[in-house]
Amino acid sequence: MLITSIFSCLFSVGAADVSKDPLKFIVITDTHCNVTPGMLADPDGAGKSFGSVVLDSVFEQLAENDEFDVILIAGDLTNSGAKSEHDGFLQKLQVLKDAGKKVFVITASHDYRGRIDETGATDDRDGYYNRALLPALYADYGFGQAIASYKSMNYVAQLAPGYRLLALNLDSPRYFTDEHMAWALGQIEDAKAAGDEIIAMWHYPLLAPTPIYGIVAAKDMIGNMSQTAAALADGGLRFAFSGHTHMQNINYFDTPGCNRLYEINTGSLYESPVFPIREVVLNSENMTIHTGFAEISGWDFEGKTQDQYIADKFNSIYGDVFNYMATDIEKFADIAASNLNANRDTIIKNKFLINTAGKILDKITFGKIGCLLLCGNYVDKSIKDKKATDFVIEAVHNIYAGDEPYSQDTPIGRAVQKIMGRLEWISKPLLKLLKVELPADSLTDFVMSLIYDPTPDNNAVLTVK
Fold first, then answer.
1. Is the dihedral of CA 318, 320, 323, 326 positive or negative?
2. pLDDT digits over 379-431, tens only?
3. Is residue 173 reached through a cis peptide bond, with omega within 30 degrees of 0 on the bond before it?
4. Backbone angles phi, psi at 160, to 5 degrees
5. Residue 64: partners with Cβ closer than 8 Å, 6 or more residues away
6. What are the helix (H) ranges across 373-459?
């Protein structure tokens, strides 16, 4: 039965309409437009934040791109939902509109302030637009071109002849109600009946972009993953684009009925080691994804290349975490509470243990770990002096950038696999005590899945089934 199922999945294909012209479009997300000065000062004293300079550069590139006229932006358009931020972002969108681009947006949690009521509105606050006003505010950028809509924040638009966009908002609740799912499946069926391919765009991820995300950030994902993905895939949806995680990832879900849903998660244009711009071409046979990166102008990179400057800034955030563990527990508690949702009081209460752990991590290397766990012969001499903290920072960078290269055939992958294997005896009771369920058969498999992913996350050709 299993062989038959696999065989049928391999050779099951949907009806292809070879008469359609390919759809070409660009995907960006998490622009977090903030018109106020940021942590990094503008070198000429104009007071612009680095994020604003990045957005200006990106939008200029998009406006000058003669090959791609359709642009999707998957939410968190602004940083806090302030009127000044929305007004500033609308000015940037006008640049694209004046260049003849067709832009389609959705909004998300950073685009409003306040609790959402049963009508989808928020309470009125000085300096902020009510959430209920956002569809009208962005009428020129998808909402006003809707051929169908649901509760004002969800819509379907015709991207081009033969192609539709299903734009979905899951701010509250962060899962599909029966009514919401019925509407979405109805729109997918309507598109199929018209001979149109329909792609989806939502903000929060449905599939975890990295295995640890489903553990530490499950509340930031669309709920009821398996049930939701299966319903959408079996209903005929094949591709969905998302944001929120600030990570580059391409993942997929296969149903028992041999239907596959791809989710393409795209990194942020606000806080990222790469500042990605996805160029996508969809035809009747496959979707080709190429990821380019913003060429930033108008910023002082301090004598470094753009890539090195951004990588150093990104990595320093996580370097500070380890540094403060060892040297300044108050600052560590502030960072952990604000960025990792940790309990500050609990951290201060356990400051001795955390500070001791920080000092050990600051000194320990692959070579020392190998000797301690009696597996030093598995640690290649090229990485013996590599600090564990530097490796962790590098692994985090790779997850966000969409390149996890350390298979068991690499020196680092081989060493990590052996080291984690040595720790299995203590990890199993500890995880049970902490009531942590890993999405893997063992701690070793789980850690290896974080540092090695054979699926390309930046450039890929996805087969239409």
1. negative
2. 999 999 999 999 999 999 999 999 999 999 999 999 999 999 999 988 888 77
3. yes
4. -170, 165
5. 99
6. 388-401, 411-422, 424-434, 443-451
